[in-house]
Amino acid sequence: MPAVQLSRNDMATLSPTAQQLLWHINDKLQRYHDWCNTAPNDQATRPLSEAQFVLNRLLQDTLPNALQRYLQLARYTPEHLRATTADNLSADDMLIKILQQTEHQLDTLLAERHADTVAQLATDYRYVQARTPNILKI
Mean pLDDT per 10-residue run, the chain (138 residues)? Predict the structure, then answer.
């Protein structure tokens, strides 16, 4: 389940940095979804966190729109792609910043998932230790 679907021609239009970031985002997104889908049922009933909401918004709206706009610029005015515009950034720079922020949001969610899982494992460990004090000495 990739973050966005782009044709080979569209991917070739992106800078190598943008392509690499998209691959990283897709890989991390797949790992995050796989991890969420294999979590115990109590994880499934949790309300959406702000970080999850932001990621969903980035993946469903912001990123596809930014890529579409970038591809329009590349298609119709390729000579201006690297010209600085807003905030002294080029279209290339802006797209890369959006991709970097999306990847950072995924890193944040993966770190949260890791911390939650470690905390749950520690709870399980403490439970076993409390219930079997003479059997389990680690």
Answer: 79 95 96 87 71 93 96 93 88 96 96 93 92 67
Residue identified by tokens 């109590």 is: 42
Alpha-carbon span 34 to 51, nearest angstrom? 17
pTM: 0.85
Euclidean distance between CA atoms 88 and 95, whole angstroms:
13
Rg of the chain in Å (alpha carbons): 21
Q: HSE of 84 in the Cβ direction (CA atoms, 13 Å)?
A: 3
Give the C-alpha separation, 127 to 131, whole Å: 6
